[in-house]
Amino acid sequence: MTTLQPDTAIRLLLRATTARREERFVVLAVRTYFIRIMNASMKKLRAYGLRPVVAPVAAELALNRAATARSFPEFVTRLIDDDRDVADLVIRAIRLYAERFAAMTTEAIEQEVGAIGRDMCAAAQTVSRNLSFISPVDA
Fold it and tell me: H or E segment at 2?
């Protein structure tokens, strides 16, 4: 887990996403990861170092808060909303999906996320690189 404060995580995400495609990648990664957490078994959550009671509830509440956001900055701000657990999950989701997309072929990514796969792969690399340059913590 990271030791970032929620407001620091928000600033990092806003600085790491410099274009619309990076914003779309972050939203895709967060929503997909949070849905996976909400549907995972307690045993699986524990195996991945997540708190089995807190993580699914935090993910669900965060997605509900961010559901009505009209812009990316508003989405990120509502999503994290001064919640350290959610900030950790968001950074974890972005890093997980950036690594996952980097290891997949373009065809596999397109099969998983559709025609936007090529853009998502490039966006994942950009966001991951930007976070590695500006992140004060190696999570």
Answer: none
- Domain count within the chain: 1
Cβ neighbours for 94, distance < 8 A, ≥ 6 positions apart: 13, 25, 26, 29, 30, 127, 128, 131
Residue 124 falls inside a structural domain: yes
Q: Give Cβ neighbours of residue 10 (< 8 Å, ≥ 6 apart).
A: 76, 77, 80, 87
The model carries a pTM of: 0.86
Running DSSP on this structure, what letter comes out for residue 54? Answer: H
Is position 139 within any domain?
Answer: no
- CA torsion angle 101 106 112 113 (round to 10): 90
pLDDT (tens digit per residue) in 55-89: 999 999 999 999 999 999 999 999 999 999 999 99
